[in-house]
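hi! just following up on the protien thing from before. the input was this:
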Amino acid sequence: MSSKTARGNDATSEFLSVKSFSDHFYFYLERMWIILPCLIAGVILALHQHRTSPISYEASAVIQPESHLAPAAEVEIEDSVLRATTNDLVAKLKAKLSLQSLYHAVTASSDLAALLPEPSRSTNQEYEAARNLLARELLSKTSVREQYGTSILTITTTLPNADNAKSVVAGLLEELGRTNSANQAGASNANIALLNEQISELQREMALSEQSLAIYSRALEIRDEIRASESRLVEFRKEYLEKWPPLVQEKEHLSLLHEVFRKEINQITKSLPIESTYWGSLQSITSTLSDEELINFQLSNTEARQNMIARDFQSDSTLHDSLIAKAKMGDVQLDFLKGEFSIIQPAVTNYLPIKLRLPDALLRFGLGGLVVGFLFATVHGKLDNSLRRIEDVELFSGRPVYTVIPEIREKATSEEKRHSRVLQAEAHRKLQANLSISHSEAKTILVSSSLPEEGKSTVSVNLTKYLAESRPSERVLLIDLDLKRPKIAEYLGLPENRAGIYEYLQGSHPLKEVIQKTEDGYFVMTAGNVTASDPFPEEKLIGGLLASLETSFHRIIIDSPPVLAISDTLTIAHQADLLCLVYRMWKTPKQALARAIKQFDGNGIEVAGIVANAMPMKTMLGKGNYYSGYYNSGYLTYADAESKASKSGKSKNNQSTRTAHSEKHS
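and the predicted 3d structure came back as:
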């Protein structure tokens, strides 16, 4: 693959991946025909909603979920079954307030009887259906909002009647309370039983603690005697020798105390399983100690263990006394069985009428229409495979755009069409100027396109015309090599049955008979009398023809077939010095342009540049928007005057030529 091909692929990748803010801006600006109708529809809908929305009144109440445990009990009792987190309680209340059955029960209120048919005038089935319908409506008119950062819930109902709205909110609170009360009896018995079980458990733990403290008290007494004996031994050793009878006697007494202490520790571990577990957990430490170190270790830990048991006993005793006091006061139902919620603010009505304000309606529906418009525009852009801006064409193809030819709309006014033609003429002059300056050495210029109907024949004719106009002393030739669909003869108004290049290559006509001179001063070779089934001439014939023509003409313009439609273009392109590709803006898929460039590059043929054809006049957007400014500037008047002068000059030249011919014939 050539470096040109690699550059084109890199440019395509860059086009697909790099999109600046201005690219997105112009992307949506080009699709305002989608966005604006959606926005207008949103505004119209907002005005309609503002005008037709009924006047309503709002009633509200504020509640807060309550835990099933009193605050003190929550700290003291560790059983997670008794507690639920605040989030769970809030979610539970919100779930209940979203049940239609709750609103169905509210409809039984006498205050809402006016919203239902009279039972005497309707069947039970009809009456029940009306209640269900009203329940659904009340559910849709009621909202439950959680205040940020708290567990407080605000229940709000909006109805056309203020008293009805208040009745609905009050009915909801009443039904919630009634539902909770129906479950109170069973919950009360369960909680009382649970309280008694907790008290009994505390009593068992306190009894074990008292037993442990009693056993450790005896061990601590022996420990105190051991410490006293050790102190006496220290004093004796300061004054007497080791064999002094009182010193020997004290040593024997200390040894006896050690033995008694070890028996006490063994008795503790045997009598109480919890103490056996505690001392057993220290086995890994005591197994490596000597007898003297072991006794010292046990003496130190005995006091620590006794203090630990004393603290636990005090804590259990305090909790036990608290639960006993609550049970005696009959406070169990009050503390343990509260309702699911407490009412912070009862149902109240805001008697100020509520109506959808115009700014709110415009913000809601107008913004919605705008969002929908942008969404449709985005989808349209994703489905649209064409290129709409000159920068996109250059970035996507990796080739320069030589000129931008505006489109002439069929529905345009005569003045707009005239202006468009003037701009088209100036665009073709720009193409001629670019090719003459940047590719002055190229004698044979091939004009092609990726697909049919992109305007390559029109570009070929006008390029030839303005090349001949810019250099009157040079001979310029236009060749129609699109033998499958020839258009040059039709565009120039030449006889279609006249012999052309096909007859010359067949050898039936000499070269001078198939070359015609036009009134604009350039020469043309039409396709001739060729049919779609006729084979395309061989490459060597085309090459020989062009070689012979280059000796007689300064510039040769070739109109070739579309490269993706017919492979003949590749045969011709190898004989040309310069290849110019025509791309129809806003219509031809960009994938077709990419395939055409890839096909040329793959065959070693370089696409020099792009001609952007049929650009809509009033939608030329982006950087370097030459024509949008040109259209409304003084340059249009200048170009128009220049075009008229050119036509006038040609008319005078033609008149002089006819006069000269007349005089000669005379």
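The mean pLDDT is 79.
Residues 16 and 268 are 84 Å apart (CA to CA).
cheers
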